[in-house]
Specification:
The structure holds two protein chains of two kinds. Helices cover 75% and strands 0% of the residues of chain A. Chain A is mainly α. In chain A, helix 2 packs antiparallel against helix 5 and helix 4 runs antiparallel to helix 5. Chain B has 22 helices and four strands. A two-stranded antiparallel sheet of chain B has the order 1-2. In chain B, strands 3-4 form a two-stranded antiparallel ribbon. In chain B, a hairpin with a 2-residue loop joins strand 1 and strand 2. In chain B, helix 8 packs antiparallel against helix 11. Chain B is globular, with a radius of gyration of 25 Å. Classes of the chains: A mainly alpha, B mainly alpha. The interface between A and B is large, with 56 and 59 residues.
Chain lengths: 195, 628
């Protein structure tokens, strides 16, 4: 959609659609939440009594999956711009499948953590492990909202409502999806460097 | 009729504002749908018009009335614990019909005293002065003053209220449970709040507190992103950022503070929930309770304080900045003068907003932090005095030689400035780590923050209600009752908190339920009784306001479109604007919002939508260029 249409009688703001601004602001609030978790992690680690453990290898596989899903999402976005309706649907469907695979992979990694005697709670738990579960869990929760968003866009694509002149929903979904992927990569890197 | 009730979203205007993915419907409707309003809204069921409304004005009134309910409750709780503090030996048998088992043998239960203080703080800070103040006026004024039909997303705005409502219901219900409401203080520091076995209030009451706050944070975020987006995107033609009324600047920055700080509280609350219910040890370590060692290892209670105050400090600016914005507007209007230092006012708001994120640890000087770190936070804290001083200076300079009209709103505006000065000065004292360590656990701190953020924010709220009541309800509030309300409250507040500073400096400790056992404190008995009487009288005085408010909604003098001769856009709407605010086109803006008593002008105010070409006699040279 042409932003100038909506903003015809408006002062020029940032030139973005209001819904895009809403999304960006929500992304900022999610950033702050994870900033709190990760800075809490660092502050807590520096106080000692911190149990070291190895991160499961499966997290690396999950990271690759989420990075690939960002690629398929971007492909769907480019296809929408070129009005290649079939490819939009394929791209979104692949993104959905990869997203679900990532969630399943994270669930599997929880199992790996437990197998390595790293627990979320209980007498044998240490905050070092609990933090990993919290970061993964809260990220997974947001990823589920992202999957719902992608599914909504896919439904719209099936109804031919996503094309080069109706880019808002897919471009917002793409932005959110890249953010979630980037957020995971940040968390993974953070844990690798600080665990 | 019933058809429409079942599918209220059929109206095109409302639908475009729906969820995230509804982009295919042309969003131009934002501007256009209002022209259809007249016939659309006749068909609307009352449930969608007054209850699940997406109209920002209705949502604002919902926030206001819910906030008033909470304010009465919060005030009642404070009266109860003031009774205990003023008459520690007195019998409270007569309260048994209300409090039931919390009165034992004529005495207030000590656990319940802690719960009263906790709930008073929580209710006042979050439910009244955050949701009730910025929820009401950001909602009401942002679209009206920037010249928009409604918020960027009416649907999210409606959700914001209903999440707040849900949060309110949960918090309210926690007052009635067996073990009582949360009692660990409004700051809910672990380990006290984290261990259900520590005090009764850390059981189910604390769980409900946390659940309620989670919904509250969601509500704040939904509201906040909407406010910011509306200011960024939906300003009318000509309304550049440098022509915005200061109210909007204040709401805008307040919303940004909320978006950046509430998620951090969310993180802290989530970790606390895990510690309480899932056996983690983020905040718990090496604890013996009732002779038993807990298994929790490796947690840090100070970490919670860092996370909490990273929200908690911006929160006090979330409370005070909307009041600052409204007072700026009200002082200029009623002094019939431009606000002094418009840009300095914006700059100081921005300065306060930035600084508010880097001073949180001044709440934690007594946690045993590194003195070097303490002095960094002390330095940053004292810098806040600069933008605050700029604001105070500008308010006073606005009043200076003004043609002042002492409306009720103006009195409360001036009262705000007075309280902000009195309370702010003690902030400079407490910002010093050395002094704070001495006075941290005394009533000096209580007196300080009640003046500077509690009472002043309330004064801003009252000023706003008196000033914008005509636009909200189409009628005027009674001025005489307003004067009585003002003087009772203004004198009452000083009579409560000035002596409280004194007892604080003299060493009277806060958070004590019973102080009669200590000889050192018994000399303060008279002073405490005096404070209690003043507090209860001032609280009862608020019922004058409540009466005036509800009476005036139905029986008040009818308002005109612009009763205060004000310049901003909300006064260009009809007396009672419908959904969409302006029946015709949205006015275009040509000038800043403070053209009061402009030299050369025949009238003493020129609204923002009057072009320079119509005001040749008063134009400044560069304005004349724009007129030609």
């Amino acid at each position: 959609m042409n932003p100038s249409e909506i903003l015809a009688e408006k002062e020029v703001g940032l030139g973005w659609h209001p819904k895009r601004v809403l999304l960006i602001l929500l992304i900022f609030s999610i950033v702050m939440m994870f900033a709190a978790f990760t800075s809490g992690y660092i502050v807590r680690r520096d106080e000692g009594n911190w149990r070291e453990f190895d991160l499961p290898v499966s997290l690396l596989i999950n990271s690759i999956i989420i990075a690939l899903s960002s690629g398929s999402m971007q492909w769907a976005f480019f296809s929408a711009r070129k009005n290649e309706i079939g490819r939009i649907k394929t791209g979104l469907a692949i993104t959905l499948i990869l997203g679900l695979a990532f969630l399943a992979g994270q669930y599997h990694s929880f199992g790996d953590l437990v197998a390595g005697n790293t627990y979320f709670g209980g007498a044998d738990a240490n905050p070092s492990g609990s933090f990993v579960y919290v970061l993964m869990g809260v990220h997974a929760f947001h990823l589920i909202t992202g999957l719902i968003f992608v599914a909504v866009v896919l439904r719209r694509a099936l109804n031919y409502q996503v094309h080069s002149r109706a880019m808002l929903s897919i471009s917002n979904a793409t932005l959110y999806w890249h953010f979630l992927g980037g957020l995971w990569l940040y968390l993974y890197l953070f844990l690798l460097l600080n665990h | 009729m019933s058809d429409m009730a079942a599918k209220p979203n059929l109206s095109p205007g409302v639908q475009t504002q729906g969820g995230i993915g509804s982009a295919a419907v042309p969003a131009t409707e934002h501007g256009d749908h209002l022209h259809h309003d007249d016939h659309e809204h006749h068909d609307q069921h009352w449930l969608w018009k007054y209850v699940f409304s997406q109209d920002h004005k209705v949502i604002a009134k919902q926030f206001l009335i819910t906030g008033m309910f909470w304010a009465i409750l919060g005030g009642t709780l404070s009266s109860l614990f003031r009774l205990q503090l003023g008459w520690p030996e007195g019998s409270m048998e007569w309260l048994t019909p209300f409090l039931g088992k919390w009165i034992q043998a004529g005495k207030l239960n000590p656990e319940f005293y802690l719960a009263l203080v906790t709930m008073h703080g929580t209710i006042m800070v979050f439910f009244v002065l955050t949701a009730g103040l910025s929820g009401t006026f950001s909602n009401f004024l942002i679209p009206l003053q920037v010249g928009a039909r409604d918020m960027a997303s009416g649907f999210m705005n409606m959700l914001s209220y209903w999440f707040f409502f849900l949060s309110s219901v949960i918090m309210f219900s926690s007052l009635f449970i067996e073990t009582g409401p949360a009692a660990a203080g409004w700051t809910i520091y672990p380990p006290l709040s984290a261990l259900p076995q520590s005090i009764p209030g850390s059981g189910a009451g604390m769980t409900l507190w946390l659940v309620s706050m989670v919904f509250f944070i969601v509500s704040q975020l939904l509201g906040g992103v909407n406010y910011v987006t509306t200011v960024i995107n939906l300003r009318t033609r000509g309304m550049s950022m440098s022509k915005l009324p200061l109210t909007i600047w204040a709401f805008f920055l307040t919303a940004i503070l909320g978006i950046l700080s509430f998620p951090v509280l969310f993180s802290a609350a989530l970790l606390l929930v895990f510690d309480r219910s899932f056996g983690t040890s983020f905040f718990l370590s090496d604890i013996y309770i009732a002779g038993q060692a807990l298994s929790n290892q490796g947690g840090s209670p100070v970490l919670f304080q860092h996370l909490f105050w990273f929200l908690g400090h911006p929160e006090v600016y979330i409370v005070i900045m909307p009041a600052m914005g409204m007072v700026s507007e009200i002082l200029a209007t009623n002094a019939r003068k431009p606000i002094f230092g418009y840009r300095a006012m914006i700059g100081s708001l921005i300065g306060i907003s930035l600084l508010s994120f880097v001073v949180w640890a001044h709440h934690m000087f007594v946690t045993g932090m590194n003195p070097f770190l303490g002095s960094v936070f002390m330095f940053l804290t004292l810098i806040i005095a600069v933008p605050s001083g700029v604001k105070v200076f500008n308010w006073l300079a606005t009043l200076w030689r003004g043609n002042i009209r002492f409306t009720a709103a103006m009195l409360f505006g001036i009262g705000f400035v007075s309280l902000f000065i009195s309370g702010g000065l003690t902030g400079i004292i407490l910002g010093n780590a050395t002094l704070d360590i001495q006075m941290h656990n005394t009533y000096f701190v209580v007196a300080h923050f009640h003046l500077v953020m509690g009472s002043s924010a309330f004064f801003g709220l009252f000023a706003g209600v008196y000033h914008w009541f005509p636009k909200m309800f189409g009628r005027m509030m009674d001025e005489k009752l307003g004067y009585i309300h003002f003087w009772l409250t203004f004198i009452g507040v000083y009579l409560v908190f000035m002596p409280m500073h004194y007892v604080g400096i003299a060493g009277f400790p806060r958070r004590y339920y019973a102080w009669t056992g200590f000889d050192a404190f018994s000399q303060f008995a008279d002073m405490n009784r005096f404070i209690s009487i003043a507090a209860i009288v001032a609280f009862l005085g608020q019922f004058i306001f409540i009466f005036n408010f509800f009476y005036s909604i139905f029986r008040g003098r009818r308002a005109t479109e612009n009763p205060w001769n004000s310049t901003t856009l909300e006064w260009t709407t009809p007396v009672l604007p419908g959904h969409g605010n302006w029946p015709g086109e949205i006015p275009t803006v040509y000038r800043w919002p403070y053209d009061y008593s402009k030299p050369g002008s025949e009238v003493d105010f020129i609204p923002q939508n009057v072009p320079y070409s119509q005001t040749h006699s008063s134009n400044l040279p560069y304005e004349q260029d724009m007129a030609d």
